[in-house]
Design goal:
166 residues, mainly beta, Beta-clip-like, 3-stranded antiparallel β-sheet, 12 strands, globular, binds zinc ion
């Protein structure tokens, strides 16, 4: 089994950091587990945290802390429900799975799938870019509200992990 450390590395992107394949990663491969600090606080919210359901959030460590959004991502986050030995629910585990082959040197990306309330303009550069960092099902809502209000110009592109990965 290749280790996460041998499969990916953190590198520079135009704005901040990203995660890159050290060697070609096959479709369907579990690239690694997103490790970090689990916080039990329903109001916890930071730039990178992942919603684990219930009152738990995961504040991820490198390398996967630096996964960027793309509207046509090559990876996704998979949440696995966990329980303690006594059967009570434990915080979910999060893994990164390749949705497509990721060639050596390419950046690993996920779809942040944010709700319309949190949407910001997207700069992912994909030919199928939705124009917003937002879940597909929320896009119509964003477009409606953006016609009423001036569209904010982001100072920097998204660098956040999804609050609700699917
Ligand atoms: Zn995009």
């Amino acid at each position: 089994m290749p280790t996460v450390a041998s499969l990916v590395r953190v590198g520079r992107v135009t704005f901040g950091r990203g995660v890159f394949a050290q060697k070609s990663i096959e479709k369907g491969i579990v690239v690694g587990q997103v490790l970090g600090k689990v916080i039990d606080d329903p109001n916890y919210a930071t730039s990178y945290c992942i919603d684990l359901g219930g009152s738990h959030s995961l504040e991820p460590r490198a390398p996967f802390r630096y996964l960027n959004h793309c509207c046509t991502p090559n990876c996704r986050l998979v949440l696995t429900e966990c329980e303690y030995e006594d059967g009570s629910p434990a915080p979910a585990e999060v893994h990164v799975e390749a949705l497509a082959e990721v060639p050596e040197g390419a950046e690993l990306t996920i779809d942040y799938a944010w709700s319309a309330e949190g949407a910001i303009p997207c700069l992912c550069g994909s030919v199928q870019c939705r124009g917003w960092v937002v879940d597909k099902s929320e896009l119509a809502k964003v477009r409606r509200s953006s016609r009423r209000a001036a569209i904010p110009t982001p100072k920097s592109p998204p660098s956040r992990m999804p609050r609700k990965p699917r």
